[in-house]
């Protein structure tokens, strides 16, 4: 307070930690699916297609927790989440996280100020036999830190940290305002038509691009040939 007036602190030299308790988490949804262990002798394309894919839309500066449930203690999964593109089999072999009944959680942070699309790949654990299927289920909970700005809630400058769970949240903010914690369930889906830009990229799918270019060239050549034959 300065000379009877209150000053708004819009920016801090260091972030402050805010802890909040979430009361209502009844809208958590459970997703069920099955994944099959592929044979290593098949083609690279078949290995990539054997990966079970789930899409996650993450809110800005959110912290998302995936809690898996497996039928038996011996069942394991390999899980990997990538931003904007589909994990391939080589990535799964090198970077996937092992999920079991003893370690059932996978964590994902979106540190950007915009909504981001992530794709989660799921395969059976390495110790699972070839062609054996694993039935699994998982719950997704996402927490977001927000503050009141210009008559609406905004997450700019506030990030949900790794200590956040479905019933409590740890926020780290770079300013002081009226704060709140939000809980949401991100949608999980794969729409092969709406999400075509996520799959058909030059970097991650050069074979698909080459096939499309070949088909376009073939179509043009056939059009020229048929036009020539028609004129004769």
Automatic annotation (TrEMBL):
Keywords: Membrane, Transmembrane, Transmembrane helix. It comes from the Eukaryota. The chain crosses the membrane at residues 206-229. Pfam families: GPS. InterPro entries: GAIN_dom_sf, GPS, Polycystin. It is found in: Membrane. The keyword Transmembrane applies. One of its GO terms (molecular function) is calcium channel activity. GO terms for cellular component: membrane. One of its GO terms (biological process) is detection of mechanical stimulus. PANTHER family: LOCATION OF VULVA DEFECTIVE 1 (PTHR10877:SF194), POLYCYSTIN FAMILY MEMBER (PTHR10877). This is Uncharacterized protein. It comes from Homalodisca liturata. The lineage of its organism: Eukaryota, Metazoa, Ecdysozoa, Arthropoda, Hexapoda.
């Amino acid at each position: 307070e300065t000379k009877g007036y209150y000053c708004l602190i819009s920016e801090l030299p260091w972030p402050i930690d805010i802890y909040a308790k979430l009361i209502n988490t009844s809208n958590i949804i459970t997703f069920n699916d099955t994944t099959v262990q592929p044979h290593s002798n098949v083609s690279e394309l078949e290995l990539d297609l054997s990966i079970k894919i789930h899409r996650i839309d993450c809110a800005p500066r959110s912290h998302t927790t995936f809690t898996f449930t497996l039928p038996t203690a011996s069942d394991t999964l390999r899980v990997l989440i990538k931003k904007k593109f589909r994990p391939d089999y080589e990535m799964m072999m090198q970077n996937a996280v092992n999920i079991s009944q003893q370690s059932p959680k996978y964590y994902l942070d979106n540190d950007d100020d915009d909504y981001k699309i992530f794709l989660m790949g799921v395969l059976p654990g390495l110790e699972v036999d070839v062609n054996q299927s694993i039935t699994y289920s998982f719950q997704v909970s996402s927490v977001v830190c927000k503050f009141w700005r210009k008559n609406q809630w905004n997450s700019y400058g506030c990030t949900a940290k790794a200590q956040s769970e479905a019933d409590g949240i740890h926020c780290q903010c770079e300013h002081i305002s009226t704060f709140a914690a939000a809980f949401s369930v991100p949608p999980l889906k794969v729409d092969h038509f709406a999400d075509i830009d996520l799959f058909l990229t030059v970097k991650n799918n050069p074979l698909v691009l080459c096939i499309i270019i070949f088909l376009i060239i073939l179509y043009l050549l056939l059009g020229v040939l048929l036009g020539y034959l028609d004129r004769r």
